[in-house]
Every structure is written in structure tokens, then in C-alpha cells.
Amino acid sequence: MIMDDFNYIKHYGRDAFEFDYFEERTKATAHEERRVREYLISKVPHYVNSILDVGCGRAWVAEKYLKKNVNVFSLDISVTNPSKALKKYPGKNHFGIVADSFTLPFPDESFDCVIASEIIEHVIDPEKFVKELLRVLKMSSILIISTPYKEKIQYYLCIHCNKPTPVHSHLHSFDEKKLKSYSKNYTSEFSYYTFGNKALTYFLTYIFLKFFPFSLWKLVDRFANLIYNKPLHIIAVYQKGK
């Protein structure tokens, strides 16, 4: 249930102020976020000179790619997160941008790569969101989106407004068909990857899997999903074409 009077700009502006996105994660959460980052990184082309990080959060994209002399644009709807990102990862090729992802302040075909990690489930209009990200992407370049996979969205009754409110502010659930539907007329190629496993998470296997390099962890994860097909995340890769 999405409230008609939901002011997402006000909500996420305050959200970034109230909650520290740069706080260190621990235990299973830290491990899960690490694997999402590693999977995303594995899909970023080596040739990129510019990356737009939409909903930059703790600015891990800047942390990773500033070292490679890539121009990184850390974008968020809040003032808080881009400001913190610039302070934590200063550099002449790091730019903090405060903007609404539905109306990006960039001309067409500005970036070699656009990343939106765990953001699309929060936006009010996912198709419009994807269209705008593709607009600022250069031709033949890559948009990479990650999100929970086939999430069953739960609600609680808000003590303030007395209305059903989605847990974690997740407004939508996604699978490969829904994500692919957003690519029509905008891309020449669409691919997706599911990963993470609910059973591995339930049995706290991160205790030893955290020592595995990404390549080995991915094999274990793939095997687990062959036995118990319950992935936690999906990555969608859109290559822009005419």
C-alpha cells in the first residue's frame, strides 16, 4: 500500500539525517552487503571513466573507484549523504550531487556507467526511475541495478498516522520479468543474476563464508541455490542501445 500523500523527498531527506548510512555493519548484515557490492563490482566494465552512484548511501562506489582515477558522482536526494561521502573520500574526481533521481541534473549520455544499489525498491515509480537513469547513460554503456529478489513486503501499523507502512520503506518487489519490462525501447541488451541464499543466511554460514574470496563464495552460493532455490537478491544489467 502506497500512501497518496507520501512525500518521498521529505522522507528520505530526514531518513539520511536520522540514520547513519556510514555506520559499520556487523555480522550477517555486513557479509550480505559485502557480497552485493562484490557482485555489482564484477559487472562494472573495466573501461569506465565516469560512474553515477544513485542513492550513494555509504559511498562504497567512491571508496572503490576513486583509487582507479574514475570520476565518481555520489548522488542522493538528501544533503547529508553526499556531504559525508565527500568528507570521507575526498578527491578532485569525486563529486557530491544532491538531486531527485527522477529529474537528474545532467544532459543526455553523460556517464559510462550508472549504479543504483538497493534503491529501486524504495522509489514510487520504478519504470520512470529506470528511464531517467538510462537517459544520462552513454550509448552502449551499462546501467546496473540491485534489489531484493521476489521480496514479500511486510507492513506494520504506523503509530503516528495509523496507516499500514511498509517495513524498511520498500514499496515494490521485483523479479527478472518486471525488471526486464522496464528495458523495452531503451536498451539493446538485458541480463540478470540472482544470488544470495536464504538457507545460508538462516544457518548463519557467514561465520565461515566471510573468509571465502568472492569467486569461491559465488560457487558455494550457486550450489546452495541449486539445492534450495531461494535467492535473496537480483542484479539487472541494462546495456543502452538505440
Give the SSE map:
Blueprint: H1 8-18, H2 27-43, E1 50-54, H3 60-65, E2 71-76, H4 80-88, E3 94-98, E4 111-117, H5 126-135, E5 137-148, E6 155-157, E7 164-166, H6 176-181, E8 187-195, H7 198-202, H8 206-209, H9 214-227, E9 233-240
Q: Please, could you describe this protein's structure?
A:
Helix content is 34%, strand content 24%. It is globular and about 45 Å long. It contains nine helices and nine strands. With 242 residues, the protein is an alpha/beta fold. The protein has one domain (8-240): 3-Layer(aba) Sandwich (Rossmann fold), CATH 3.40.50.
Name a few traits of the molecule:
single chain; 242 residues; alpha/beta; Rossmann fold; two-stranded antiparallel ribbon; 9 helices; 24% strand
